[in-house]
Amino acid sequence: MPERTPEERERDRLEREAKRAAREGRKQPEPEPEPVTPPPEPEPEPEPASQTTGNVRRVEGAAPREELHTYDEPLPEPDPPRTPERRIPPPPSVPFEPGEKPIGVKRAGRPHVPRPHLPHRPAKQPPGPRPPRARRPRMRIALMLLALLVAAVVIWFAFSLFQPFTGDGNGAKVTVVIPKGQSLGATADELKRANVISSTFFFKLRARIDGDAGNIKAGRHVLQESMSYGAVLEALSHNPPQPKVIRLTIPEGRSRREVAPTTRQAGLSGSYVSATRAFSGFDPRHYGAPKGASLEGFLFPATYELKPTSTVKQLVAEQLVAFRQNIAKVNLRYSRKKNLTVYDVLTIASMIEREAGTAHDRPLVAAVIYNRLRKGMPLGIDATLRYYLHDWTHPLRQSQLALDTPWNTRLHLGLPPGPIGSPGLASIMAAAHPAKVNYLFYVARPCGNGASNFSSTDAQFQRDVAAYNAKRAQLGGKSPTTCK
Length: 484
Hints:
Elements: H1 6-24, E1 50-53, E2 56-59, H2 135-162, E3 173-178, H3 184-193, H4 200-210, E4 219-224, H5 229-236, E5 246-249, H6 256-266, H7 272-275, E6 303-306, H8 312-327, H9 333-337, H10 342-355, H11 362-375, H12 383-389, H13 398-401, H14 425-432, E7 441-444, E8 452-455, H15 458-474
Antiparallel strand pairs: 1-2, 3-4, 5-6, 7-8
Helix pairs in contact: 3-4, 10-11, 10-14, 11-14
């Protein structure tokens, strides 16, 4: 092992002292500056005893030429240049808390420079707990159910819009009249009322998607019930054939509101209900009607032939002309003796139209009405209340039968305020000339095909009602008026 220099031994001593001071927690003594010893200067080589004159060296003695270049011993090698040693200052003393031990001494080539104080950065919060893995399958199931629901809605919407299994209709033929300039929404409403389409929303949407909203032709179209939207749009995109005449049949006993849809289907322009409130040149008060009365009862039912361009006002004009012609055929002397006006006769005739199921029963029903008026008994005819409620199909409820209105002939004596429809000639004649019988009651005859059982006493009436109810129960609650 080579011998260490004094400088190396001093440096090791300082390092041991620094480590000991760090372990004991005391301040390290400042090292004394080490004297820098300059490197020794090389000794000058002895020059041979010779004399030089200018650039010529003279050698003494008569030495051979070979001796000038050879020596018995090699010349000594010059010492390599020594690199000056670098002093390492002792590590600075680091204060430690009592009981704390240093973890080592860091050797560095440059003195430690403390960093400037940086603001404290809050430590990152650890991420929250992950959701339990048990929720992931539930979420997947919920997403799958949602996707299935969305797919079902889309499929339903597509089927409702394009109706792949609905063709050109499988129902009865209906006539739909589309006035010129009518909107798509009004056309859809008319088709829905006629049971041609099932939804106005999808019909309008399909018409806009197909671009047929503006191709619908005005006129009188013959369609079928339960048609597809595509088939309806195809049929309405062609001009309908123009008939030479329109044959319009007004049934007997129907009210103004019931006749209005028939006029629309026939292709007549205008509102029938509005046109029959009043008519220029016809005054109902001339026939005993109160002021402000409508044309209800004066619109004579019959079959009329009109031009395709006719309006509801032209139909009303022909109905009033027919009324004048037919009322002139009726002998009103008996009703006048009973202090009944033509308007009262029309009111009785309108009730006969609703109550009598056969031509034979018309004068008998008129007799019951006359007898009850004479005795001061309520008429008890529910058709008058149905007219007030605009409901001719649904069974009447007890709350409706208890309505306090002049049209409720169960509660109010006398005739209702006016006719409940437009009667035909046969019912007008029966109202003007009732049968000469003392009947006060009637009820539908079981399996009578519209005929009724009439009675003069309440006891007989109750037996007739019991027979009617027994037959109805036998038929499972169905009406026993007509039996097969």
